Amino acid sequence: MADIIPLTNSRRKNKKQEKRKHTTMCKSGFHRWKIWKEKQFDVKEGKLVTVYVCERCGEKKVKAL
Description:
The protein is α+β, with helices and mostly antiparallel strands and 65 residues long. It is 28% helix and 29% strand. It has a domain at 31-65. Strands 1, 2, 3 and 4 form a four-stranded antiparallel sheet that branches. It starts with 9 loop residues before the first helix and ends with a strand.
């Protein structure tokens, strides 16, 4: 009997899914927020702020204390 060869390569499919996983998560609104400690003071308003940066896409979010 002959060996059955699958038509799709599962390894290649998994690699493509891993590449797209990070961008699709952020597009869906599921960011991975991390506190950015370099900027903690807002000069224009004179307030302490917390700056969050998404680890995947680099989007920034600011919250005033």
